[in-house]
Design goal:
- This protein is of the alpha+beta class and about 850 residues long.
- Strands 9-10-13-12-11-14 form a 6-stranded antiparallel β-barrel. A 4-stranded parallel β-sheet has the order 2-1-7-8, sandwiched between helices.
- Helix 5 runs antiparallel to helix 17, helix 5 packs parallel to helix 18 and helix 8 crosses helix 11.
- The longest helix has 28 residues.
- GO terms for molecular function: DNA binding; DNA topoisomerase type I (single strand cut, ATP-independent) activity; metal ion binding.
Length: about 850
């Protein structure tokens, strides 16, 4: 009997290949699982892509997804039923809707399924309980996408006109930048107040030490000194001993925000890395869905945790409970982030396991008994002293949920709350002081935001949702509105007085303060853009407004509001404001006049110029052109002083030649440098370029020579190595070859070098099908097939007249004229643009343009 191959009757479409692979093994041969690789359709990259009269989006399949969509359409034709299994949030619902629309799926031939964990039970349960696409969730996603596109596309050109070209604005990103800028302004305006804190070390009759703090700080040095003089002759006693029971409670299971915060503080992961790893844990079936603002656990999870706790720790450690989400806007019926199987205590991948352990322990601890502690407070003093000392300690009587962490310190404790045992003492017992110190302390300004801290603040204000935190934080860094540059600490003097048996000893110490690293600091352009937007678009930058917009999206998702009505109401107020600002607002440069240049008598300005923050001496309309200097990376328009600004004009300066090549020191786009001949060598981070003398410049050049010395030869030519923007590389002739991680970069053998260069040269040889160097046109092999390049622009290759595709061999015979026609069909101005500079020469150059050219030179 002849066997026929039976095609699967069910097609399941998920978002990622990793998820497809995991689900395929649960569903068997009756199901074919394919991935859409995220969205297959979106607003066009160029242009608004929205009909503003009706707010109808003009979605298009992106170029890189056309082949995939063709493959999915072919798979749909072979299936009886298509199961749309994208993620359970609004973004996932929109992906399912776009798939249904683009693949022309009829309601009777499609089913929508959702699950918040990729386990066999969850997948099979989802198949048993399908539904249709929830249009309310789709509309909530469309409203967010369309509103954010309108805000970005209408506000950004205003910034180009009023601040600087190439800038962008966005509803959530601009509010996030505002938080960082306002915090920085608070720090700058902060005036530290000094006070004296007193600490004593006392000894009981057994010579055991008791560390205690005075219950009052002194504002003045004299008062602290007087207290020490009184304490010198005081007989200290134990005035009171109080022991009281207490408890510590575990934190709720993780939401997206709390996971990002904890991974940052415990593991040092940034928000993007945390979400990438959590995505992998989810797709490989280890945890539930990682975008959620709910702390709720399913009954199945509570039961699973209970069984694990009882088997591992015993019945007395188990305390099943459920948590309720405080946020009224918690999205859909999500569950907290938790392990899918509590019997899986660790996983083999080391990096994934670190995050998994964080999630596993937090979830398990949330279902365990409170820790019981005994807190002891000892009061120490003397009747003649105005204030008394207090020593605190605690003992863990029952570790409870702390057992899950294997530590006696919870995730919310700070360093002062470590468990501390105190010796046994009785009321009235005499104590002797060993030392009592009064140390001058200054109040601290509010802390700059870490990534996790910014996420916490956005969540607290109701701005953004779990899926938006990571991209928002990435965007404000990509736009260079904020960065994490290191802030060098300042130094100040503090007074410390120590009372010992020989009397009071006073000393002046130095302490460093104000230093920071890995925290968000606004850039100059970030501050100027923020000030311009808050001055002119106060409504959009208002924290309350941004939170209310999020609430409107929630109402749309619940079916309580129509999304196009919301858009009409928003746009009717927003667009007139855009027109008004474009017409009437002043140009923003963040300009400050720092003072007068003593040499020329002209004003010294700090401002944003065409190429970034700079100092300008003189005015634009002076007869003698102004002079310019760029700010260094650690300097800021808002804080730079006149003296610091004038120092910048000492750069660049020349030194003596080295090996017959001229040497100079300057500051450029990428920071301070030593220039040797035509070679630019970066000056090490934190080193002042003005301090670089002849000897130091020669040291820097020697280090560069050693680094650039050939490490081998290839066909008689030298091979050098270095580390660049894209990681480690070797260089042969003018060819740069990236060195993958599988090679030991510090110890490359000759075989390694031959292998790397051979592979690169072979790849380059196969790159060009045809090349016309003079015209800067080529036909090249690219990742997804042949392309046409003209300068830096890439163009598609059209189909032949018989509608078939060109093969590489066919393209070897195509003429230059035909290739030019392909280019002009896609971009009519491609070659006309080359003539523009020639026509510009005939017009008279405007005076400001000449000045801008001067700025560029400087």
């Amino acid at each position: 009997m002849q066997k026929f191959f039976r095609m699967p009757k069910n097609l399941v479409i998920v978002e990622s290949p990793a998820k497809a692979k995991t689900i395929q093994k649960y569903l068997g041969s009756d199901f074919d699982v394919k991935s859409s690789f995220g969205h297959i359709r979106d607003l066009p990259k160029k242009g608004m892509g929205i009909d503003l009269s009706s707010f109808t989006p003009d979605y298009e399949v992106s170029a890189d997804k056309k082949k995939l969509v063709t493959e999915l359409k072919a798979a749909v034709k072979k299936a009886d039923m298509v199961w749309l299994a994208s993620d359970e949030d609004r973004e996932g619902e929109a992906i399912a809707w776009h798939l249904a629309d683009e693949l022309k799926l009829k309601p009777e031939n499609r089913k929508r399924i959702v699950f918040h964990e990729i386990t066999k039970n969850a997948i099979l349960k989802a198949i048993e309980n399908p539904r249709d696409i929830d249009q309310n969730l789709v509309n909530a996603q469309q409203a967010r996408r369309v509103l954010d596109r309108i805000v970005g596309f209408e506000m950004s050109p205003v910034l180009w006109k009023k601040v600087k070209t190439g800038l962008s604005a966005g509803r959530v990103q601009s509010v996030a930048v505002r938080l960082v800028v306002e915090r920085e302004k608070e720090i700058r305006g902060f005036v530290p107040k000094p006070s004296f804190k007193l600490e004593g070390v006392f000894l009981n009759h057994s010579k055991q030490e008791i560390a205690a703090k005075l219950k009052k700080d002194f504002d003045k040095e004299k008062d602290a000194e007087n207290f020490l003089e009184l304490a010198k002759t005081a007989d200290f006693k134990v005035l009171n001993v109080e022991t009281k029971p207490g408890t510590r409670t575990a934190s709720a299971p993780f939401t997206t925000s709390t996971l990002q915060q904890e991974a940052s503080s415990r593991l040092g992961y940034n928000v993007t890395s945390t979400m990438r790893l959590a995505q992998r844990l989810y797709e490989e079936g280890f945890i539930t869905y990682m975008r959620t603002d709910s702390v709720n656990l399913s009954q199945e999870a509570i039961n699973g945790a209970k069984a694990q706790i009882i088997s591992e720790y015993g019945q007395n450690y188990s305390k099943p409970r459920n948590y309720t989400t405080k946020s009224s806007s918690a999205q859909e019926a999500h569950e907290a982030i938790r392990p899918t199987d509590f019997s899986v205590k660790s996983i083999s991948d080391a990096q994934l396991n670190k995050l998994y352990q964080l999630i596993y322990r937090r979830t398990l601890a949330s279902q365990m008994e409170n820790a019981k502690i005994e807190k002891t407070v000892i009061e120490i003093g003397n009747a003649k002293l105005p204030k008394h000392f207090e020593a605190q300690g605690e003992v863990i009587v029952f570790d409870g949920f702390l057992k899950a962490y294997g530590i006696v310190k919870t995730e919310d404790d700070d360093e002062d709350n470590n468990e501390k045992l105190l010796p046994k003492v009785a009321v009235g017992e005499a104590l002797d002081y060993k030392t009592i110190t009064a140390t001058e302390k200054f109040t601290r300004p509010p802390a700059r935001f870490t990534e996790a801290g910014l996420v916490r603040k956005l969540e607290e204000l109701g701005i953004g949702r779990p899926s938006t935190y990571a991209p928002t934080i990435q965007t404000i860094q990509n736009r260079e509105y904020v960065d994490k540059r290191e802030i060098e600490p300042q130094t100040r003097e503090i007074i410390k007085m120590t009372l010992g048996k020989s009397g009071v000893k006073k000393e002046v110490l130095e302490e460093k303060f104000g230093g920071d690293k890995n925290k968000f600091v606004p850039t100059d352009i970030g501050e100027v853009v923020n000030d311009f937007l808050t001055d002119n678009f106060a409504e959009i930058l208002d924290y309350g407004f941004t939170a209310r917009v999020e609430e409107s999206f929630d109402e749309i998702a619940n079916g309580d509001q129509k999304w196009k009505e919301m858009m009409t109401d928003f746009y009717s107020k927003f667009h007139p404001r855009i027109e008004d600002v474009e017409e009437n607002a002043d140009r923003a440069t963040g300009e400050r006049i720092l003072g007068i240049d003593p040499k020329s008598g002209k004003n010294v300005h700090a401002r944003i110029g065409r190429f970034g923050p700079m100092i300008q001496i003189g005015e634009q309309d002076d007869e003698e052109k102004p002079t310019f200097a760029s700010l260094m990376a650690n300097q800021n328009i808002s804080t730079i002083t006149l003296e610091e600004a004038l120092e910048l004009f000492k750069l660049p300066f020349d030194l003596k030649e080295v090996d017959g090549q001229p040497v100079s020191v300057g500051v450029g786009r990428f920071g301070p440098y030593v220039k040797w001949g035509e070679t630019y060598i970066s000056i090490p981070k934190g080193e002042d370029p003005l301090s670089v003398d002849q000897n130091r410049a020669e040291e820097i050049i020697s280090e560069k020579k050693r680094a650039d010395a050939p490490i081998a030869t290839y066909k008689g030519e030298p091979v050098t190595k270095g580390t660049g923007r894209f990681g480690p590389f070797i260089k042969y002739k003018s060819v740069f070859i990236n060195v993958p991680k599988r090679y030991n970069f510090d110890h490359l053998s000759q075989n390694d070098i031959n292998e790397l260069i051979d592979a690169k040269l072979e790849k380059e040889a196969n790159r060009y099908i045809q090349q016309w160097e003079k015209e800067k046109i080529s036909i090249e092999n690219a990742r997804w097939g042949p392309i046409v390049k003209h300068g830096k622009n890439i163009y598609k290759i059209p189909k032949k007249k018989d509608d078939s595709k060109y093969e590489a061999d066919d393209l070897k015979d195509v003429s230059l004229d035909e290739v030019k026609k392909w280019i002009t069909d896609q971009d009519p101005k491609a070659f006309a643009e080359k003539k523009k500079p020639a026509t510009k020469k005939t017009t008279t150059a405007k005076k400001p343009a000449a000045k801008k050219a001067t700025a560029k030179k400087k």
